[in-house]
Specification:
The chain is α+β, with helices and mostly antiparallel strands. It has 13 helices and 13 strands. The strands form two sheets. Strands 1, 2, 3, 4, 5, 6, 8, 9, 10, 11 and 13 form an eleven-stranded mixed sheet that branches. The longest helix has 27 residues. It is globular.
Length: 370
Amino acid sequence: MVKKPIIPMTFKVDWFAFTVNESLDKDFKLLKKFGYDLSLFDEVSGKNFFNAGYSLGGGFVKLFYNSPNLPKQKGSSDLHDYIFTGVGCSDLAEKIGGKWLDLFKYLKDFGVNFRRIDIALDDFNNPALIDFPRIERKLQRKEFRSSKRQYNILRDVSTSGELAGESVYLGSRGGSNHSLLRIYQKYLQMVGKHEESQMPLEALKSGSWIRWELEITKDKANAMIDLILRNQSISKSYYSILRDVVEFVNPIKTKSGQVQKNKARWPVCRWWLDFLHGVEKAKLQDPEKTFDLGSALDWVRFSVVPTLQMLAEIYDSKMGVDFYSVLAGLDPMEYSKKQKRLILESGYISKKELQIYLDYFVKGPKQNDA
């Protein structure tokens, strides 16, 4: 049975895309409405039948359109195509103060066509509220009901035999409209990408992060937005879609001792009902950034600096090598989208504020808080 969550589950809009007629969105007025400065975007090649585009911070916000100065592809529409990736959604959430329902209502009234929305439910509990062995066991025994025709279980194992990733898919990306549930080990994914510093504090503390993500596209995406606006709740809408995608049940027997063939009569698992109760109570993630200048400096001070000092001591005592000089001579590494986003945002931070962050980094919290 699922235990009462120690860490409440939270929702996050993790991908958001829509198109709008260019006659309604002249000079990309929606981009400005959201608080973006087009001059900070890079010009990129077109995509999805569009001949031109703009990209921010390596692609966490993308915008495609048809430039009148370039040949137009056959079959292309006079639309503006807006795409906010996971990092882009975090950025957009901050700009709108987390008021997604207000944004959805505004865009619907504006006349956009929603193309995709991903909503992630995050479980930071350790142990997880529902672990992968339990999910896999139920699926393999066919002890579930689902509107989907197929499921897939994927597991990545390192050459040393350690689990490097685990995902369960219900549904598929086939067809023009789809809804897909992906359950995966987000913690392992971040560790595999060496992005521990960019994890939410809850994941860093617990050492666990399982994400239940609904990916909904095209007509179903429009229907999902309508459902959210009708319910005036993302959690309630997510809950109803999740129960349609999968319902874990317990088999029962007939009076003759045979397993009841009609699965509609099988009762829902108690632990699944407990989990769904947690889904109903889950809240939208705080729009404040999980990766900002303060969290980056904290990570460096408390996790990176001790490791560097250790390495410097080892190489100095054993070989007389200045490890910090070795670091300084390394070739620059490519930034992640979150890091590129932070670099862009640093342009709006005053020197005074930067100095405050630096003083805190040098002195540490105890000295500053005294």
